[in-house]
Amino acid sequence: MVMKMLLFLFIVQPAVQDRDHKFLTQAIGEAYKGVECKDGGPFGAVVVRNDEVVVSCHNMVLRNTDPTAHAEVTAIRERLVYGAKAEAAIAIGFDDFIADALRGTGNTV
What is the DSSP code (8-state) at residue 59? Predict the structure, then answer.
């Protein structure tokens, strides 16, 4: 059993590395784009679901004069907050707090 598991991991690992490399490369591209546009620091984010990019963004702290506009926060806002449905948030893996906020039924602090 252990031998089969090790063989499986050995075979699957290169494909996983290639996939991760592709998405990390895209996030790095976003980081460069943000710096070139002078939107913010060199940070990019890519949200992936089922091996497909859902959204990719970069840091927007300087452009929006918003210290919370980190790349990952910008990605969440782009995909989930602006016109998104609670079910989309749940499908991507966000918890009920985010879904309730999107529905307007949650307690916001």
Answer: -
Residue 4 burial class via C-beta count within 10 angstroms: exposed 0-12, middle 13-18, buried 19 and up: exposed
pLDDT digits (tens, 9 = 90+) for 33-65: 999 999 999 999 998 888 888 888 999 999 989
Q: What share of the chain is helix, strand, coil (3-state, %, to 5)?
A: 60, 10, 30
> pLDDT digit string (tens) for 69-95?
888 888 887 776 555 566 666 676 666
| Contact by Cβ (8 Å): 31, 71 | yes
Q: Where are the domains of the chain?
A: 24-103
DSSP 79: I
List the CATH code of the domain at 24-103.
3.40.140.10
Catalytic residues: 72
